[in-house]
Each structure stands twice: as structure tokens, then as C-alpha cells.
């Protein structure tokens, strides 16, 4: 008897089962803690392999993970391209393969782009809940692409900011962002203007040199540094990196992939999972940076969530 063919769960279906990124919060918190517990946490996740597609300014990332607690096995294939000439093609595209861990059969092929947008924003929200200063009033987003939207959605759902600001390299895109989302957003003409006095900052750009300077940042602010995922790319300058308490998703990945960490020589204080577990303090009164690179196990638990919901006919 042949095995059942895999199902395909496209972007629209994924969106339907994952209409709010916050649905992933419990699974992601557990995954972060399990990852940071080492072998005892049952997460097997190598640092992703990245293949440069040099003539085209692109990269292919391969992100496998197994989570024993969830008994879930996936790999994500993600491409990301700098300087996209055709703006109708997204800079990041992803597919997730979900296997039956008992026998290795492929169960599902899922669109990975919606999951990437939502799980990344949800992880930033987890970091923000733990690390932001008390009475945070101003949220600032630098960048106005896919991740800017997913971060806006979950941040405005979970937190009560009095003001949201956005800056983008091309103002047109920031204006479009402000007119598309459900709530007031102040469009700023410079990153410095956007950041000045902000309590929480999200950097979600394709920048390869710093767009956020320590000089501009209010002491005690929390920064989610989401872009700059190559060892020679930066979003944050040395001053900010060195004068903040630095949290990462994975120490091993940060020391392999993050230009902000490697080139600044900043010391890593903790993995986010260690804070979730309670083995490291959060220090919300200090200026904090969460350097997010994205982890395969986040995709594993998110894909399992969508697949289980789809299988249950929700
Ligand atoms: N940490 C994680 O888990 C993940 C991180 N990312 C990263 O987040 C960042 C944003 O991703 P998306 O929103 O999907 O990309 P996107 O292409 O949709 O948006 C990127 C934004 O950056 C701006 N930009 C491009 N070049 C720039 C430059 N040199 N300086 C300043 N701004 C520039 C663009 O105008 C655009 O608004 C990327 O760096 C991406 O690699 C993406 C997925 C997961
Ligand atoms: O985690 C991910 O997915 C990605 N992280 C960095 C850039 C490419 C996608």
C-alpha cells in the first residue's frame, strides 16, 4: 500500500488558520524555552545553511528542525533577494515541508511566507513583553515592508501605545503603510525623527549599513533588530550594540550570521529562551536589543499549528 500523498496548504489557507499571529504565542514561547534548554529541551536545530546566488544578489536558506516535545519535523526553504527590481515579487519567499516524524513521510507542503511574517513578529512581541520599559508609550517601526505590517498588527493587538511612528527609505512606502493599517501612524521624514523619544523600536529593513544610531535612542528603550541577517550586514551601529544589553534568539546563529553582533564585538547577555524560562533576568530598566535572526523551530511549531488546525477542519 502506497503512502498518502502530501497535502498543499497555500498562503490563503495558512492565513485562514493563522488569522492572528498571537495564536502562536504559547507554542513559540515554549519553543524558545525548549531551544535554550539544550539537549533536555529536545530541539534539534542546526544553524541554517545559506547558499549565496551571487550574480542575482540572492540567498537560499535551508532551515530544518525537530522538536521532540511537539513531535514535529520540518524544514523551511527560504529565498531572500536584495535590490528586487520587480517590486511585484516579494524579497522573501518561503516554503515549509512537514514530515511525519515516525516514518519520514512528507505530510504537507505549506506556504512559508505568511508563517515567516507572523512568527517573526510574534517572537519580537514576546521579546518586547519581557524587555520593554514600564509605561512604554511610543512605538517606532523602521522599514515598511512585509515584516513592518506583521509587527504592527501584533504590537497594536497586544500593547497600548499612544503613538506609532514609521520611517522608510522611500517615503511613498511609509505613506502607503500609514494609509493601509487600522489606526493612526505618524510618517517621519528621517529615522532620527522617528526614533527620538521612542520606547520600543523595530528595525525591519533590508539595510546593509546602520540605519539606527545609538546616539538617537532614548536610554531604557527596547529595540527588536529583525533585519541584517548576514555576517557583513548591519542595521544598528557599534555604539548602540555596545551600550545595550544584548539578547539573541540563538547564540550560535548570532555569532555566525549577525553582522551587528560579530562586527561590533558586543557581548551576548542571554538567549530570549533563557529569559522565558527564567534562568536569565530580563532587565527592562536598561536599554535592550533583541537581535532576531529567525529560528527553524519557530517555523516547526507554526507549521504544526496550521497543519493541526487544517486537519481538524477548522
Ligand atoms: N529575524 C527573522 O526572523 C526574519 C528577518 N527578516 C528580515 O527582516 C527584514 C524585513 O523583511 P521584509 O519586511 O520581509 O522585507 P521587505 O522587502 O518586504 O521590506 C524591506 C524594507 O526595507 C526597506 N529597505 C530596503 N533597503 C534598504 C536600505 N538599504 N536601507 C533602509 N531601508 C531599506 C524597503 O524599502 C522595505 O520597506 C529583512 O532584513 C529580512 O531579511 C525576515 C524574515 C524573518
Ligand atoms: O528566519 C527566517 O525565515 C529568515 N531570517 C533571516 C532572513 C531570511 C529569512
From TrEMBL:
Location (main, coarse): cytoplasm
UniProt keyword annotations, A-Z: Cytoplasm, NAD, NADP, Oxidoreductase
GO cellular component: cytoplasm
Pfam families, alphabetized: OCD_Mu_crystall (PF02423)
Gene Ontology biological-process entries: thyroid hormone metabolic process
Reactions catalysed according to its record: L-proline + NAD(+) = 1-pyrroline-2-carboxylate + NADH + H(+); (3R)-1,4-thiomorpholine-3-carboxylate + NAD(+) = 3,4-dehydrothiomorpholine-3-carboxylate + NADH + 2 H(+); L-pipecolate + NADP(+) = Delta(1)-piperideine-2-carboxylate + NADPH + H(+); (R)-lanthionine ketimine + NADPH + 2 H(+) = (3R,5R)-1,4-thiomorpholine-3,5-dicarboxylate + NADP(+)
Cell location: Cytoplasm
Molecular function as annotated in GO: pyrroline-2-carboxylate reductase activity; thiomorpholine-carboxylate dehydrogenase activity; thyroid hormone binding
Entry EC number(s): 1.5.1.1, 1.5.1.25
Family indicated by similarity: Belongs to the ornithine cyclodeaminase/mu-crystallin family.
Assembly notes: Homodimer. Binds the thyroid hormone triiodothyronine (T3); T3 binding inhibits enzymatic activity.
Entry protein name: Ketimine reductase mu-crystallin
Organism: Patagioenas fasciata monilis
Source organism phylogeny: Eukaryota, Metazoa, Chordata, Craniata, Vertebrata
Gene: CRYM
